[in-house]
Amino acid sequence: MAYGPGGAAGLPRPLVNPADILPGGPPPDGIPAIDHPRFLRPAQVNFLAASEPVLALQIGADARAYPVQILIWHEIVNDTVGHAPVAVTYCPLCNSAIAYDRRAAGRVLSLGTSGLLYDSNLVMYDRQTQSLWLQFTGQAVAGVLIGHQLRPYPMQTVSWVEWRAAHPHGWVLSRDTGYTRPYGSNPYPGYDSIHSQPFLFSGQVNGRYTAMTRLIGIHHDGAAVAVLLDALRRRRVIDLTLAGHPVTVWWQHGTASALSGPTIAGGPDVGATGAFSPIVNGRRLHFRPVAGGFRDQETGSHWSVLGHASAGPLAGQNLTPVTHEDTFWFVWAAFRPHTRVIA
Q: Is residue 8 scored above 70 in pLDDT?
């Protein structure tokens, strides 16, 4: 997987400087992707604490939870959700959890970890062409499929108890992965300290905020906005407009940080976030925080952080999720340098 400045074996010139793609330590597939995931029903799960973070993905009626305690050791799950081939990806160094459709250039790709990093972000490769893909953007930056873009699916990081209440008949990724790992422990203790420095970050940290400042990043049609987590925690609901579209961004307490303590479950409460279109049945809703969730001012319906109305006139409705990343300032500013910031 070596790609020189002019491309390898007649391949196009890489879209990034190959000198900035650095070995992260493990060899290719040294952090093994999960290619044959097994799942449990929520009632069968006995290894998750209430506040433990899980990655929540729903396509159609197919709702799945991917525990961070498993993803932190594997980083990629090649799965099929709602009949769509999907890669659920998590880069611990950026705290970025992103789901992508695995279809590109008429192929269904199988993604693995390359052992490489770009701006401290996971560089993936596809086993069909050996092209390199940046986890943060979903773009192939070197190889046969250079320039191709994977389509993201909205995904949230929420607490196990919140997800289980919303999806009692959903599916949960099992620890039966085919590998032996100390699931539940954190291999990066203290990494998310506000005073930490990102691992193998070759760029200059934009000095507006410290490198590890947490934020919620959203981008659409070339526009990007970063909502600082501290601001969202204070207000719990922030409404914004991005590329002409209204977005409501929420924060709910009760989800542990995976990157602080020696265990995933033992981290401090950093909460869960959601980003949604506030338009339901052609009507713009306005939300305010209440105990256990959110309430819209127009109908008084009660909503969970997963965007589901559980009570009131709109009970049973779901808000349309907006793709967003819970991540750190250093990587968001590196990939989205022209971002707007809400602090």
A: no
